[in-house]
Amino acid sequence: MPLQTLFACAVAGAAFGSVATTAYMTNRKREQERSQILAQARTPAMPTTVPSVPGAIPSTPIAQAAALSQPQWVDPAGIMRYGFPGPINDIRHAPSLMSSFDRRTKNPHWVAEHITPDSLSHPTADRKHSVFVEDASIPAMFRAKLADYYRSGYDRGHQVPAADAKWSQPAMDSTFALSNMCPQVGDGFNRDYWAHFEDFCRRLTTRYPSVRVVTGPLYLPAKGADGKYRVTYEVIGSPPNVAVPTHFYKVIYAEDGKPNGNVSMGAFVLPNAPIDNARSLKEFEVPVEIVERASGLEFQSKLHPSRKRRLCKEHECEIIVKEYADRQKTLTQMVPKR
Predict the structure, then answer these.
(1) Strand pairing class (97-102; 90-94)
(2) DSSP assigned state of 337
(3) 109, 114, 122, 158: which is the annotated catalytic residue?
């Protein structure tokens, strides 16, 4: 055999031996790591989360061991170098409310407010000075537009009502951003039963020193003629932009004002449709868990069951039907003087 051929074979053999040795050592190290992780998995441990990936699925020792046993050919988390796709919840802090915005439906997920006897007994703001505005804190392509509501047939329905924020003009003005609005049926709902419901929430402050309310839209399924359930809703705007909710919810926390005191909770779901004023508010009461399941939100994860009370068991859950002007005129008279 020529010398050149022998040299080539020797080099090739050495290279192969080196690769084989490296592969063996790598596989042995990987097997050792896998054995250690599996050994750890026998003892209960809290799941850990990959910190570089927002919303990552918790990784347990068993999952880590499984990952080590697979070829490292892909890097799904590498997509994050281009940005986090979402979903992104635009959180808004305003004088009168706090909210989370849904960029897909162009409506809020939820809007939270806090009303007290003091906040209702100091009316210094006037609605005539407030104007509806687009929420500039939300990117233009994701926000609701004033033009979307034009000739839509729907009201720009406040989730936190302006009447709950009369304690200052900036507080009232902050309720007029479209991120606090949803398309609502006007006659028979937004200007009638829903307005009476908002009044009911305010009247709770005559008994409870602190009342918190979370309000938002729902998109619930309806049974079709074929017996199947589907979620369908209108979308207003040109081009279509803002979803029209099928229902609305309110979750009420009536607090007794004591540290770690009792909280009387009530949850209600109303259709976005005309409602006869003669109907009892109790007809729309549901367990809080129903709203949580329908909305995908949690409202009582930190509330100990021993502190929870049922609002409609402690308080008469009924609306009072009044003309809007009369209701606003008598509001401050219902709040007890302190």
Answers:
(1) antiparallel
(2) P
(3) 158
